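Review form for a predicted model. The reviewer records the input and the model, then writes brief findings.
Reviewer: anonymous (R2)
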Amino acid sequence: QVQLVESGGGLVQPGGSLRLSCAASGFTLETYTIGWFRQAPGKERERISCIIGSAGSPFYADSVAGRFTISRDNAKNTVYLQMNSLKAEDTAVYYCAIEGGGYGSSCVMGRIDGMDYWGKGTLVTVSS
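Model under review:
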């Protein structure tokens, strides 16, 4: 069965860095679009990054562009999110999700309901 497991969250100080992992099983992620989403307390879930289809083209929300980098390791069937220059407003539960297809339209458009499978999330807290 399809599973996504996030890891790497924790407590970091503002300006610090963290690397999140999304390990996939039950499918080969290389041909799919994987998105990173986050949900802060009391806020709606938002898309922050996508890695699109076989080409692995990246997409970033303006709020994280230049600070976060999405990548994948096809041999490990894992997608990563390197987060640098973290801010307090980055505090959230971070989720990875699969778009059922390789086009990436739902992820890029931030359509939560267009993502088919979700991990359970990993908590990132940015605080001094």
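Findings: The first strand starts at residue 3 and ends at 7.
Further findings: DSSP finds one helix and eleven strands in the chain.
Recommendation: see findings above.
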